[in-house]
Write a structure and sequence with these properties.
The chain is α+β, with helices and mostly antiparallel strands. The chain is 31% helix and 19% strand.
């Protein structure tokens, strides 16, 4: 059997192929461009990631996903998998091919006695947070609740509760997937453990995740959270004062407290670049206000911090992360204590960018001041995810509307994350990072560029070679090649007999 085509060279689906596939489905719907729902279903969080699919499978079962995967591969048709649709690389879209849309698979089951949450692959974090809250529980989830659980989980997953409970994948008990050979399998620490190792960090390269089971934690009480804004242009002293608190909060919060700093352009009439700080405290209000008193005493321009249900926390940033417009994401990492001079230089770069490109005034630069201690309790070799160390993430998120600014906006994201990377290397050199965990310093979920071997090696570090070997076993033809590039060249003779037999 000859090797199957690489994803970027696969063909479009024809009208006859659509009819053939539709007739083989059990319960799922197959949309084509003339369908009323088609336009909505090709929309993505970033308009710059939208493509015109030849057909969209509104999947309702693993069986129909299996049928579609085998059909696409046997006919050499390009395909993509879409959960929440937040990838800015375009990996959840297809030009002329098939999109396997999981948005119809959004049921959530909570087992209060076992403290587990089982959610279908098309769920958003809002679905999981709400179902857990009804049972007095919570789990680590994304800080934007209209994000799909699949992409965040398969790439690692940081959240407000990471200081207490680690990453999303640290609390993943099991996963159900449809593999490239059409088989539906379950993987856990005791069942297909090698695949379970791979999907915790590189899961989008191994199959379609149809169900996740997470460990849950008691969360019956509200939390202290909100957003504070400061104007560094009028009050330059705010940057060092806020940063001093944020640096100290990582250690002093002991995992129960966290904050996020960022730069964003404020609303009219001033529309000036602002310093934004979002506090989080999982505990009583009196303790929260005592902990954040030094920050609250700095007289922020706005202050929405209050006691709110945990299920509302991951919706705090939805207003600045709305669907629509053109977007890109790029990530980096920093070691605390962050230098004041470095934060000021980031602010200057942000101000210059939004002034030079007014179309990009919805852009964000966010820094996560979460305690990394719980995350670092797990070794970097324990699963594919390799970004554990005593540092935190930075997200560069340019947002713009006019296609003419694509190059400028993406260049800014690359330039500022290069600057961030150099600062992290300096921290390693001068001893500010004292651990020997050797984290890669790159969070894969924040890397919104098109996949490359170099980037994949950077994201997975010492785990890359093992991932390649597992990729050969579970997806030898690189059917799932739109996420990370884990596809060394080898001929069809190396395809497993089971795989060849399924596609015959």
């Amino acid at each position: 059997m000859a090797p199957l085509p690489e994803p970027r060279t696969r063909t479009h689906i024809s009208l006859q192929m659509v009819e053939d596939l539709r007739s083989s489905l059990e319960t799922s719907e197959l949309l084509t461009p003339e369908a009323d729902a088609y336009r909505v279903k090709i929309m993505r969080w970033a308009e710059s990631s939208e493509k015109k699919a030849g057909a969209i499978l509104l999947a309702s079962s693993p069986a129909d996903i299996s049928t579609t995967l085998l059909f696409a591969q046997s006919h050499g048709i390009d395909f993509a998998v879409c959960g929440g649709g937040h990838s800015t690389s375009g990996s959840s879209s297809s030009t002329g091919g098939i999109v396997i849309d999981l948005s119809s698979m959004r049921s959530v089951h909570v087992d209060p006695s076992m403290r587990t949450i089982t959610a279908q692959g098309g769920c958003l974090w809002a679905d999981v947070d709400a179902a857990a809250a009804e049972n007095g529980l919570a789990t680590v989830g994304g800080t934007i609740n209209h994000t799909g659980i699949g992409g965040l989980t398969l790439g690692g997953g940081y959240g407000w509760l990471s200081g207490q409970y680690g990453l999303v994948i640290d609390n993943l008990i099991s996963i159900e997937m449809v593999l490239a050979n059409g088989r539906s399998i379950k993987a856990s620490a005791t069942e297909k453990a090698d695949l379970f190792w791979a999907v915790r960090g590189a899961g989008q390269s191994f199959g379609v995740a149809t169900s996740f089971t997470y460990r849950a934690f008691e969360q019956s009480s509200p939390v202290f959270a909100g957003t504070l804004t400061f104007d560094p242009l009028r009050s330059p002293d705010k940057i060092p004062q806020v940063l001093a608190f944020a640096n100290n909060s990582i250690r002093a919060g002991q995992g129960h407290a966290a904050c996020m700093l960022g730069f964003a352009v404020g609303p009219p009439p001033n529309s000036a670049p602002m310093l934004v700080c979002s506090p989080f405290f999982n505990g009583p209000e009196d303790q929260a206000r005592a902990f954040f008193k030094p920050l609250l005493d700095l007289e922020p321009i706005t202050n929405s911090a209050a006691m709110i249900p945990y299920s509302n926390v991951n919706g705090m940033f939805n207003a600045v992360a709305q669907h629509g417009g053109r977007k890109s994401t790029k990530g980096g990492a920093f070691a605390a204590p962050m230098r004041v001079e470095f934060l000021q230089s980031l602010f200057e770069k942000f101000c210059h960018f939004v002034t030079e490109v007014p179309d990009a005034r919805d852009s964000l630069l966010l820094m996560e001041f979460f305690s990394p201690n719980k995350v670092c309790e797990v070794d970097n070799r324990a699963m594919a995810f390799a970004n554990r160390d005593h540092y935190n993430n930075i997200l560069a998120n340019p947002q713009w509307k006019d296609e003419v600014n694509d190059g400028k906006c993406r260049l800014w994201a690359r330039d500022i994350t290069t600057m961030i990377r150099k600062e992290l290397e300096a921290c390693k050199t001068d001893g500010r990072i004292g651990s020997k965990m050797e984290g890669v310093g790159t969070y894969g979920n924040y890397e919104g560029d098109v996949a490359s071997e170099e980037k994949s090696r950077t994201i997975f570090g010492a785990n890359y070679d093992r991932l390649i070997e597992l990729k050969k076993r579970f997806d030898p033809s690189n059917a799932f090649g739109k996420g990370h590039l884990l596809s060394p060249q080898f001929d069809g003779k190396q395809l497993p007999k089971l795989f060849c037999r399924t596609l015959a």
